[in-house]
Amino acid sequence: MKSKIRHLAAPSILALGFALAVAAAPVVAQSSVVTVPPPIVQDYWVSISRQPNGILVFDGYAPSDAARNNFAQTPSADVSFLKLGSGAPASYDAAVAFGLSALERMSEGRFALRDDVVTISGIAATQADFLGLTGPQAPKPPSGFILAKSEVTAPLEKNYTFSVRKQGNGSVVASGFVPQPSFEQRVLAAVGPRSSSTLRFASGEPVNFERAVDEALSLLDLLQTGEVKLENGSWLISGTPKSAAEANAIRTSFSDDRMAEGGWSLALSDPAPQAPAFNWRLEKNDTGAITMTGAVPTEAFKRVVALRLGNQLQDKASIADNAPDGFITEALAAADALTLLNAGTVSYEIGKWSIVGEGDSSEADQQITQALAAFDGWAIEVSAPAVSSVAMQDSDAPADQPVPADAEASTPTATAEPIPAIPEVEVATSVAPTTPPVSNADDIAACSASLSQLSAQNGILFKSGAAVLAEGTDVILQAMATAANQCPSAALDVAGHTDSDGVASANLALSVSRAEAVINALIALGVDPSRLYAIGYGDAQPVADNDTQAGKAQNRRIVVSVRQPQ
């Protein structure tokens, strides 16, 4: 009987591999579940969008069910669009947590992660949130991730307003809204050092807002007093021009730029009468007598100049309210420089400073140049002292010429001690020394402690942006005068400090002027003027944070301290 041979087909490679894998696999219970990882995703991404209603919509990929379930626990989260996928970047969870933290501070926005690149955009919920998300302390993404874009705008403001108001004393106040801090700084820089701001940050500004502000500020510069403002979607320029020429320039610009068609309105008053130019001069003749003419800003300034120059000063100056910025500081430096001349003048005329005359020594020109180096634009023409005719005759006289009987009694004219160069942040008010009663160590210690305690109260207040003492300061000034007179031989430093608002050079000048105003008040209350020195530090020595109103208030201060006379 013949055998029947059955030929079987060779198994496929796939089937064989599967069989080998099954054979090699350990035997497990019938109820075991094999967990299969999610498919690998080459372009791995995830995004979270915060909707205006607060819903957080997750999209993209999560590495596991556990991760997706964890996201679902986030309040107002919608993870229905979130798919599972392997290949998430390292620190995926930390990156998503960073995005959620940012979205918590937005009214609406979006966070996205693709591979190792992170982007954030949206509208901040509050002004504090805006500054927190965009300022120097804004959070950074986890290590290993790149923040490719961060575009967070200020909170949306539906009633967008803006105003810049120029007052009669030259100070400017900005209020309303601007899109961001850099634009606020741009506005304040444009209107000058005597500016302050209550601006807040908001989005929702009109189209071409920045260009409109630039045009408005250029016209505000032509007003003596006035305001440019945006309200209810319309711009208004109102006020009093500096002169008829400025009034014509405003109207011409308004017409040529067709501003009325853009929703602008114009309301100008007749220009105020033109104030005379501010000129000032100190003139010293060859006898040492000094005459002050022209205009000065205050009576207090006159008294300080008199303290510096002494009894030889004849005051013919009048008071005017249009002194240029920084005039007091520069004029006091000029008065000090005049003491290095035998004869000559220092002046501020047609907007220019100058000193001309004969020096009291061959080094006078160099000393004056050094003393005025802190200021720009000075014209200095100082000659060496002339040789007197008497000296020429003495040197040419023959040896047998009789000597005058009074020759030994006469002495050369003493040259004045050179004044030190005026430092950038310190200007001292000094007067001729007197001989005060000697104070003992206990008196000086008690005096110093009392003045330190009174200074710490920060009770000497001024009108905003000015060196004019505010009402209500007379009590603490009287207390300071009483304390100062407990140690009559000790010199007193009266130091002025400001906050950081405005330009540093203007703050320096203001701090000096305020210190001198306090000195004038103390003199009026019986303190010997020879003991008093005014020092201005501007905003260079803050004692608190200038980012808050409370901190700025602490930094605006007068400190009176005691030292032994030099």
Structure in words:
By secondary structure, the protein is of the alpha/beta class. It has four domains: 45-153, 3-Layer(aba) Sandwich (hypothetical protein tt1634), CATH 3.40.1520; 162-268, hypothetical protein tt1634 (3-Layer(aba) Sandwich), CATH 3.40.1520.20; 280-385, 3-Layer(aba) Sandwich (hypothetical protein tt1634), CATH 3.40.1520.20; 441-563, 60s Ribosomal Protein L30, Chain: A, CATH 3.30.1330. It contains 15 helices and 23 strands. The strands form four sheets. Strands 7, 8, 9, 10, 11, 12 and 13 form a seven-stranded mixed β-sheet that branches. Helix 5 packs parallel to helix 6 (209-220) and helix 8 packs parallel to helix 9. It is elongated, with a radius of gyration of 39 Å.
Task: Please summarize what this structure is.
This protein is 30% helix and 25% strand. It has 15 helices and 23 strands. The N and C termini lie far apart (141 Å).
Whole-number tally of structural domains: 4
Query: What portion of the residues fall into strands of 2 or more residues?
Result: 25-35%
Could you say which structural class the secondary elements and strand pairing correspond to? alpha/beta
Uncertain runs: 1-30, 389-435
Instruction: Tell how many strands the DSSP assignment holds.
Output: 23
Distance between termini? Answer: 141 Å
Give the CA-based shape.
elongated
CA-based gyration radius? 39 Å
The CATH H-level homologous superfamily of the largest domain: OmpA-like domain
